[in-house]
Write a structure and sequence with these properties.
The protein has eleven helices and seven strands. By secondary structure, the protein is an alpha/beta fold. The longest helix is centred in the last third of the chain and has 16 residues. The radius of gyration is 18 Å and the shape is globular. The structure holds benzoic acid (BEZ). Benzoic acid binds next to loops.
Length: 253
């Protein structure tokens, strides 16, 4: 996963500590991709490459891209063929059996630019398969951030970094580009965190946090945490985030 149009940077170690589950939970999307040995696959937004490694282990010939140089460095350290590239400006033509993407596309507010690049990258009959945040994703987290920002006179909409579409919206973009829809599914996937919600906010919420003066950021995070605790922290002290996933499959005729 990487920064595209939003204000968000990545530290591979922080990411692994606070969000290592993201690649593990990508297994359903990999099942839908069903990579075959020898297939040439583009992993769009490979992050530090944990899930890309699985595609390689399944026998696919994988090229990986990510907009974050730090993440690409981490992916290369795993021996992957990874490159720094913006998903909105893919530089491939007619060469992949499939383009795959996990937990990335919600960072790009202009889906059309990505889909056009994917279409160019695929061979005829190729497929675009992936999963990302769909309509309603992290709604409770966003509500907490919104309330706390409002108390400081800030509007969350001015700092909103994500695109969380419905099946109809994203399916419409895929079809408008000439792709044929396959499996399309929106489902809730509440996800327990390995640590505190503040770690999650620090990893993913740069857009909001940097709207707050540096000296107040710690209090801001604590206030958001207090707002979220009644709904997202259980009796054992385990935090969960209210993820909603959009899983999709589309084909180039
Ligand atoms: C997601 O994977 O859905 C996601 C992760 C971080 C922030 C927002 C959404």
């Amino acid at each position: 996963m990487s920064k595209e149009q939003s204000r968000q940077s990545w530290n591979p170690e922080d990411y692994e500590r606070n969000a290592g589950f993201v690649s593990d939970l990508g297994a359903g999307a990999v099942d839908l991709l069903a990579p075959k040995a020898g297939e040439r696959i583009l992993d769009l937004g490979c992050g530090h490459g944990k899930l890309t490694e699985k595609l390689v282990a399944m026998g696919a010939d994988v090229v990986a891209i990510d907009a974050s140089a730090e993440q690409v460095e981490g992916a290369r350290a795993r021996g992957l063929d990874a490159h720094v590239m913006n998903a909105s400006a893919l530089a491939f033509e007619n060469q992949f059996d499939a383009v795959f993407s996990n937990a990335v596309l919600h960072w790009i507010k202009d889906p059309g630019s990505v889909i056009e690049g994917v279409k160019r990258a695929l061979i005829p009959g190729g497929r675009f398969v992936g999963e990302f945040g769909g309509a309603g994703n992290v709604a409770r987290v966003a509500l907490g951030v919104e309330r706390v920002m409002e108390k400081r006179g800030l509007a969350i909409a001015d700092y909103w970094p994500w695109y969380f579409p419905s099946v109809e919206n994203y399916g419409g973009h895929l079809q408008a580009a000439g792709l044929t829809l396959g499996h399309m599914e929106l489902f809730a996937r509440p996800t327990p965190l390995p640590g505190d919600i503040i770690g999650w906010l620090e990893t993913f919420g740069e857009s909001f946090i940097t709207a707050i003066p540096k000296a107040e950021q710690k209090t801001f995070l604590q206030d958001v945490r207090d707002d979220l605790a009644p709904d997202l922290k259980d009796d054992q002290g385990v935090w969960s985030v209210d993820y909603v996933r959009l899983r999709f499959q589309a084909f180039l005729p």
